[in-house]
Amino acid sequence: MKGMTHNAKKKKKKKQTYQEFHQLSIEGTNVTMTDAEVFGDSMKKKPPNTVRIGPHNIQLMPKNSRHYKSRQLIDHISNAELDVLLMNEVGLNWEKVSANNQWVERTTGKLHGSKAILAHNTTELAITDTIQYGGAGIIATQELAHRIIDRGHDPTNLGRWAWIRIQGKEGHTTHNAMAYRPWESPGTSTVFHQQARGLAQQDDHRNPIDALIEDLHKAINAWKAVQDHIIIGMDANKDVRVRQVHNTFKRIRLREAILDRHSNQSPLATQNWNTKLQPIEGIWVSRCISISAGGYLPF
């Protein structure tokens, strides 16, 4: 089952002229340009004794480690002083990525001492190309990597989430996780239909969207049962302030850290195709965890 890269060659077409349209509010404010701005706290030099965590929607990582997008991602981890990068929509079937393009090769000479956990759908490798929609991953850089005591991924092997467990001071342990909630899109290679097939193989015929939320709920409760603190990022593909996503995290007493810190501000969109001023990605934390800063970077 083949996905298509964003760089796929296209047949030549007649030259066309496109006009860029911007969305305006009723008062005439340019909403499109506003969405591309920073929301919340601006990113500054990381203070001492601080852990910096950044969720990021990759929207297909290039197969080639030398591709500019791959190099930009590595540079971003370093320049932003991230201790943990939470990734979703990585878009690669790592089983079919060549040896010289694996993640470790992408970080050689740059992210010394980092560790990674990369999750993707391994239930249908025989019919899957290198490009595979979906997937999640976590990168921990040197300062935090040596504190990892365990790591893993979604037990269904569908690549729905990845996690690391970190040992802190005085015996405190924290589960950091990243998940991707699919949306019901057409096409056999989409994340929704990948997961529908994978669940059906296990005689599980739930809607993949409901299955993700229900199974993640159970996983978080299991992590909490051993007294772990929780930090979890997710691309929900829906407004995180309402309905299923909001209610699920509320029931397990996790709060969305950025929106909670900036509750007096109207949030911006978190995707460049989102024109409804709805945050569809978030990072939820245990109530005992406080943040010193948090926000959205521009697209």
Give an overview in words.
- The protein has helices spanning 31-35, 68-79, 103-107, 142-145, 191-201, 208-225, 243-251, 257-261; strands spanning 39-40, 53-57, 84-88, 115-119, 136-140, 148-153, 161-167, 173-180, 229-235, 254-256, 281-286, 295-296.
- It has 299 residues and is α+β, with helices and mostly antiparallel strands.
- The longest helix has 18 residues, at 208-225.
- It is globular.
- 36% of the residues are buried.
- The model is unreliable at 7-23 and 31-35 (pLDDT under 50).
Brief digest:
The chain has 299 residues and is α+β, with helices and mostly antiparallel strands. It has eight helices and twelve strands. The chain is globular and about 45 Å long.
Sketch the topology as an H/E string, one letter per element: HEEHEHEEHEEEHHEHEHEE
N- and C-termini, Cα separation: 30 Å
- Helix amount, in percent? 10-25%
Structural class: alpha+beta
Strand-residue fraction?
15-25%
> What name does the CATH topology carry?
Deoxyribonuclease I, Chain A
**Separate helix tally:** 8
Instruction: Report the mean per-residue pLDDT as an integer.
Output: 88
CATH class: Alpha Beta
- Evaluate the radius of gyration: 19 Å
Q: Could you describe the largest sheet, including whether it forms a barrel? A: 6 strands, mixed
The unreliable regions are 7-23, 31-35
As laid out across the biggest beta sheet, the strand order is 6-7-8-9-11-10
Count structural domains: 1
CATH architecture: 4-Layer Sandwich
DSSP E strands, number? 12
Q: Could you name the CATH homologous superfamily? A: Endonuclease/exonuclease/phosphatase
Q: Which of globular, elongated, flat, extended, rod-shaped describes the shape?
A: globular
